[in-house]
Recover the amino acids of this structure.
C-alpha cells in the first residue's frame, strides 16, 4: 500500500483528495454548529435528529426498491430530520416534562424504522454503512454542496451572531430585548437537521454526532467566548478529520471510526488535564 | 426612605385589576398597584406569593387573564425595551465561555442588530463604571464571585439606558460585604432610574427603598393574590453589617390585614 502523501498527490486517486477536502469543509459546520449545540446543551437533541435520519433513509430505499416512489435516500433523510427537529422543538418548548422521553423515542423509533425498512427492501442495504459512512466515497458534487452549506452557515453567523449568543446565554433576557428566542431555537434545530443530513451521507450518523460534540467540547476547555470556541472547534475538527484520514489510511482501518476515536481521545485527554488543574486550584484555596 | 409626597409624580407602571393563574393555581386576583417615576420600590413576599409572576407580567413574558398593565402609559409589548431586567443568576450555565464585557454588551442588543457600535461600547463602559466593575471588563463571567456577577447583571440592564430597572432577588445568597457593595452601587443610580426590586425577605429592605409593596400570602386573610403597601420603620443599624429598614407588617402594627392600606388607595 502506498503512503498517504503519495496517494494524496496521485492523479489516479482523486477520492483521497476529495476525502481530505470534505474533512476540512465539514470542519466549519462541525465547529460552528457544534459550538451552538454544546453551549446550549442540546447534544441529545442533535443525536436524536441524526439517528432518526436512518428511518428516512430506510423508507426511501424500501419505496424506491419496490418501485412505489422513486425517492433518493438523502430526500428521505431530509424529510425525517426536519420532522424530528419540529417534534423535538415543539416538545422542548411546550412540554418540557416529557422532553427526555420524546427525544429518546425519536432516536430509537427512527433507527428501528430504518433497520426494518432496509431488511424488507429487495436490494441489499447495510445499516452499518449509514452509521459510519465512508468518507472515501465522496465525489466533487458533494464537495460543492458542502462548500455551499459552509457559506450559508457563515453568512447566518455573520448576520445573527449577537442574537445567537444572547439566546444561548440567557434566553429570557434575549426575549426581553425583543428577540424571538423560540424562533431562533427552532431555526437552529432545522439548520442542524439539514447539516446532519448532508454530513451523514459523507461521514455517517455516528461520526456526525461525535464531531458535533467532541471538537467543540475540546474547544470549550480554553475558549474565552463563543466566537473563539467556534474557531477553535473548527480547527480541532479539521485536525481530527485529517489526522483520522491519515491514520485510517496508513493502518488500513475505517476512517470514520478512526476520526471519532482520535477526537474522543483528545477530548478525554483535555478533560483529564482540566480536572487535574481544577483539583490543584482547589487545593491551593 | 419614602417620605415625600408622590401624588403628583408621573406613574410609570400601573397594574389595574390584574388577574393571573397557572393551571389550578390562582396567583393574582384583581391586583392593582402603581409605581411612580424615579421611585425605589421593594416588592416583598414569601415564596409562591406571585412576585416573580408580577415581574414576568411586566416584562410581557406572561399575559394577564384579566385587567390591564400599562407601562409608560402604553402596552407592555410597545415599551418593553425601556425596561432593564436583572434575573436571578442561578439559571446560568457557568461553563458558558463569555467575558464580563460581552455579558454587559447584551444589554445593548436590538432585534436585528448584526454589529455593536462604538456608542454601544461607550454605554457598556459607563454601566461597568457605574457598578464599579470596570476593572473586571475582560474577566470570564464564570470566574467572578456571586456578588460581582449580580453587579455585572445590573450593569447589563443599565447598559440599555432603561427607564425602569426590574431586579429579581438581587442579593439572594450574597455575603454582607457584597450586599453592601451592591447597594452602594444602586445608590449611585437612585432617582435617575425607577427601580423595582423583588425579594423574599419580608422583614428588612434596603434603606434606599421609598415604598414597600407586599405580595400577600395565604397567612394574610382577605389579601390572597393581592399586592398591598406596607409602611417602613426608621432605619435600624447593624443588621448584616449594613443599614436596613424594617417592614411593618400587620403584627408589628398590631392590627389586621384589613387595616393595611392598599396601594390602589394611594
Amino acid at each position: 500500500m502506498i503512503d498517504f502523501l503519495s496517494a494524496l498527490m496521485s492523479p489516479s486517486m482523486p477520492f483521497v483528495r476529495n476525502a481530505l477536502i470534505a474533512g476540512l469543509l465539514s470542519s466549519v459546520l462541525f465547529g460552528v454548529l457544534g459550538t451552538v449545540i454544546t453551549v446550549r446543551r442540546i447534544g441529545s437533541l442533535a443525536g436524536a435528529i441524526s439517528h432518526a435520519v436512518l428511518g428516512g433513509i430506510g423508507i426511501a430505499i424500501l419505496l424506491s426498491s419496490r418501485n412505489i416512489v422513486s425517492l433518493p435516500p438523502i430526500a428521505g433523510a431530509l424529510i425525517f430530520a426536519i420532522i424530528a427537529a419540529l417534534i423535538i422543538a415543539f416538545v422542548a418548548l411546550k412540554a418540557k416534562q416529557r422532553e427526555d422521553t420524546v427525544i429518546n423515542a425519536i432516536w430509537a423509533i427512527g433507527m428501528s424504522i430504518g433497520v426494518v425498512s432496509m431488511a424488507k427492501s429487495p436490494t441489499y442495504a447495510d445499516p452499518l454503512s449509514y452509521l459510519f459512512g465512508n468518507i472515501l466515497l465522496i465525489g466533487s458534487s458533494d464537495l460543492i454542496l458542502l462548500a455551499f452549506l459552509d457559506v450559508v452557515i457563515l453568512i447566518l453567523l455573520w448576520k445573527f451572531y449577537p442574537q445567537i449568543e444572547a439566546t444561548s446565554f440567557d434566553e429570557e433576557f434575549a426575549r426581553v430585548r425583543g428577540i424571538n428566542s423560540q424562533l431562533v431555537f427552532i431555526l437552529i434545530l432545522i439548520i442542524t437537521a439539514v447539516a446532519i443530513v448532508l454530513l451523514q451521507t459523507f461521514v455517517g450518523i455516528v461520526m456526525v454526532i461525535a464531531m458535533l460534540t467532541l471538537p467543540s467540547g475540546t474547544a470549550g476547555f480554553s475558549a474565552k467566548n463563543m466566537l473563539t470556541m467556534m474557531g477553535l472547534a473548527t480547527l480541532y475538527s479539521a485536525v481530527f478529520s485529517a489526522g483520522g484520514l491519515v491514520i485510517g489510511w496508513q493502518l488500513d482501518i475505517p476512517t470514520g471510526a478512526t476520526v471519532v476515536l482520535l477526537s474522543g481521545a483528545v477530548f478525554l485527554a483535555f478533560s483529564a488535564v482540566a480536572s487535574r488543574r481544577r483539583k490543584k486550584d482547589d487545593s491551593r484555596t | 426612605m419614602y417620605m415625600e409626597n408622590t401624588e403628583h409624580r408621573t406613574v410609570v407602571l400601573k397594574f389595574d385589576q390584574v388577574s393571573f393563574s397557572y393551571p389550578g393555581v390562582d396567583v393574582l386576583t384583581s391586583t392593582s398597584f402603581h409605581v411612580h417615576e424615579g421611585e425605589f420600590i421593594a416588592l416583598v413576599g414569601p415564596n409562591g406569593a406571585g412576585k416573580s409572576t408580577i415581574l414576568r407580567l411586566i416584562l410581557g413574558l406572561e399575559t394577564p387573564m384579566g385587567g390591564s398593565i400599562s407601562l409608560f402609559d402604553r402596552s407592555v409589548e410597545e415599551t418593553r425595551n425601556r425596561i432593564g431586567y436583572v434575573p436571578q443568576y442561578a439559571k446560568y450555565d457557568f461553563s458558558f465561555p463569555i467575558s464580563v464585557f460581552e455579558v454587559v454588551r447584551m444589554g445593548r442588543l436590538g432585534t436585528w442588530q448584526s454589529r455593536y457600535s462604538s456608542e454601544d461600547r461607550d454605554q457598556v463602559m459607563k454601566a461597568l463604571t457605574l457598578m464599579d466593575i470596570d476593572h473586571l471588563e475582560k474577566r470570564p463571567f464564570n470566574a467572578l464571585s456571586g456578588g460581582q456577577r449580580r453587579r455585572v447583571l445590573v450593569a447589563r440592564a443599565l447598559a440599555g439606558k432603561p427607564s425602569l430597572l426590574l431586579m429579581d432577588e438581587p442579593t439572594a445568597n450574597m455575603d454582607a460585604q457584597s450586599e453592601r457593595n451592591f447597594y452602594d452601587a444602586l445608590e449611585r443610580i437612585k432617582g435617575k432610574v425607577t427601580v423595582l426590586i423583588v425579594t423574599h425577605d419580608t422583614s428588612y429592605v434596603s434603606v434606599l427603598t421609598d415604598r414597600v409593596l407586599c405580595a400577600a400570602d395565604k397567612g394574610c386573610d382577605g389579601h390572597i393574590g393581592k399586592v398591598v403597601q406596607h409602611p417602613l420603620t426608621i432605619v435600624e443599624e447593624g443588621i448584616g453589617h449594613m443599614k436596613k429598614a424594617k417592614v411593618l407588617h400587620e403584627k408589628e402594627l398590631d392590627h389586621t390585614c384589613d387595616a393595611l392600606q392598599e396601594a390602589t388607595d394611594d
